[in-house]
Amino acid sequence: MPDPVSSSYGAAEAWERLSEAVGSAxxxxxxxxxxxxxxxxxxxxxYLSEYLSAGIAQCVTHADPDNPSxxxxxxxxxxxxxxxxxxxxxxxxxxxxxxxxxxGNRGSATGFELQVNT
Length: 118
Hints:
Strand content: 5-15%
Distance between the termini: 18 Å
Number of helices: 2
Helix content: 25-40%
C-alpha cells in the first residue's frame, strides 16, 4: 500500500481515502457492540474529531518545511492520547534537504527537549 501522504495520490483520491478512514472509525465507535454507553460514545466521537483536527493542522495547515514555525501540537483542544498538562508540545515541519537553526530563550522552563522524528 502506498504512503497516503505521498505525491502519488491526487487530491480527490486523498480526500476519498481520508473520508473513508474517518467514516470507518466513526462506524466502529457507533457499532452496537462498541463498549460503553451513549455518553462514552459521544466522548469518543469528540476525541476522534479533535484528533482529526490536530492531524489536519499538522499535516496540511502547518506543513511547509520551507517556512517552518513552532506551533502547538497537543493541547486542551487537540489531545493525542499522550498529553501532559505540565508540558507544552510544539512542532515544526522539516525537510530532508534543509538546514535549520533553533534559537530562543527558554524563559522559566526547567527543561527543554527536542525530538526529530521521521
